[in-house]
């Protein structure tokens, strides 16, 4: 298997990463997940822009340009045999010893790694939806940075898993923010509500796509905070992410939501999302 390691494509078993790497020591780094369909990346520009923007927010210099990164990830996809799946890329602040919390000098070279995983779309879940739980959002106050230190997110996802749910819907006090690994939106009386971008949520790329769909379909979208009470009274609820796409929620704790019907807003967004994938990547295989 080939992977990206420090700006090159190498065999997976050639990779050695020093234990003083700041990603390992401090979780000091940023990452992206980009899906590909038919061996073509979906929304690559948007993901690369967010990767660079996350790095900028933590004052980490990028050792390569956006176009060099695009070329590298395209080359890695060409080396792989996967038809559909994801690429995971991450950049840590590099190897700086002795261990010190302070940012190292600018001549420490950040370390890029990247790998490809084949994955089929979960069409069953896209049809039937997922079960979720409500969890208090215990994370820090810079959730806009797509960073590799994900302990808060994974602890919250684990709480959901302990209750046999797929995803945790997070709230600060009674305000719904996002999910442990996706954004969340609710539908009420023909309009969509979702938390505004800012420091409390990750600005999702999938959200950009479904918002464009909503605009095309003349569905109003209100980006304003809403409460857990409003969420539980919603007509429909969905999560969105690169790996989940537009994913219906069929349960929040004990509250069960009916399967979205064929003309429902979730179904309209799902088919528009698929059309956008087909426009960029060609026909879907499943
Ligand atoms: C916490 C969180 N919010 C939102 C998202 C959705 O982002 P995107 O649509 O860019 O995948 C993710 C994706 O991993 C996430 O981890």
UniProtKB/TrEMBL annotation:
EC number: 2.6.1.21
Domain of life: Bacteria
Cofactor(s) the record lists: pyridoxal 5'-phosphate
Organism: Alkalibacterium subtropicum
Subunit structure of this chain's protein: Homodimer.
GO cellular component, one term: cytosol
Catalytic function, reaction form: D-alanine + 2-oxoglutarate = D-glutamate + pyruvate
Record GO terms (molecular function): D-alanine-2-oxoglutarate aminotransferase activity; pyridoxal phosphate binding
GO biological process: amino acid biosynthetic process; carboxylic acid biosynthetic process; D-amino acid metabolic process
Similarity comment: Belongs to the class-IV pyridoxal-phosphate-dependent aminotransferase family.
Pfam families hit by this protein: Aminotran_4
Name the record gives this protein: D-alanine aminotransferase
InterPro entries: Aminotrans_IV, Aminotransferase-like, BCAT-like_C, BCAT-like_N, Class-IV_PLP-Dep_Aminotrnsfr, D_amino_transT
Protein keywords: Aminotransferase, Pyridoxal phosphate, Transferase
